[in-house]
TrEMBL record:
Keyword annotations of the record: Magnesium, Metal-binding
Cofactor(s) of this protein: Mg(2+)
Keyword Metal-binding: yes
Protein name per Swiss-Prot or TrEMBL: Haloacid dehalogenase superfamily, subfamily IA, variant 3 with third motif having DD or ED
Domain of life (superkingdom): Bacteria
Family statement: Belongs to the HAD-like hydrolase superfamily. CbbY/CbbZ/Gph/YieH family.
Length: 220
């Protein structure tokens, strides 16, 4: 395949942030009386906009979250980004060598998206083509963000290839009419993660960046 556009998710694909953030969110939720593990948070909400995930948790709890809860979680995540965040191994050199237009389409808000890429040295690989969920009415698993990115960069949906680690992201890309390579290199990915991504619609699965160029070349 010769993609018109490579669309990368950010969290769990470019930066190894899902486990960091999900563990931090789980600690905060447990502290207020909703016991949950970071692994369960990642399994249920990876790729989903934070506000959407918290709204779902409020419905389950039957009460609103404490005032300022979302802001505290975001602040904690930003602090972790500055102290512990790393890029996925071989991301920078692999992406730089791929001869296709590229962008990022992320469920993160703009400041968090930019910080994650800056802290890991990936920002310049993608700037200015950074698309945040705030640009569209409906975040993943709706297709809106991927459709917005393709339209902004003049690519057809059939010509886009999405690199995603989340069920929500794969579902969104499939609904947009795009093909998806499922990525399982993040520290949050369990042994069955690739199978789950394939079941959701990914046409190929890669465990890391070393395998990505060959996976792209093998697609019809």
């Amino acid at each position: 395949m010769t993609p018109e556009l490579l669309i990368f998710d950010c969290d769990g694909v470019l930066i190894d942030s899902e486990a960091l953030v999900c563990n931090a969110d789980a600690e905060e939720l447990t502290r207020i009386g909703y016991p949950i593990t970071g692994e369960e948070m990642a399994r249920r909400f990876a790729g989903v906009p934070g506000a959407v995930a918290l709204a779902e948790l409020e419905r389950e709890m039957g009460r609103p979250l404490p005032e300022g809860f979302h802001a505290r979680c975001e602040a904690k995540a930003m602090a972790l980004y500055r102290s512990e965040l790393r890029a996925l191994p071989r991301a920078a050199e692999t992406i730089a060598a791929l001869p296709f237009p590229r962008c990022v389409a992320s469920s993160s808000r703009p400041a968090k998206l930019a910080l994650g890429l800056v802290e890991t040295g990936l920002y310049e690989l993608f700037y200015p083509h950074l698309f945040s969920t705030v640009l569209v009415a409906n975040g993943k698993p709706a297709p809106d963000l991927f459709l917005h990115a393709a339209a902004a960069l003049g690519a057809t949906t059939a010509g886009c290839l999405v690199i995603e680690d989340s069920i929500a992201g794969v579902t969104a890309a499939r609904a947009a009419g795009m093909r998806i390579v499922g990525f399982t290199g993040g520290s949050h990915c369990g042994a069955d993660h690739g199978e789950r991504l394939r079941a959701a619609g990914a046409v190929a699965i890669v465990p890391g960046y070393a395998e990505l160029p060959a996976a792209i070349a093998a697609l019809d």
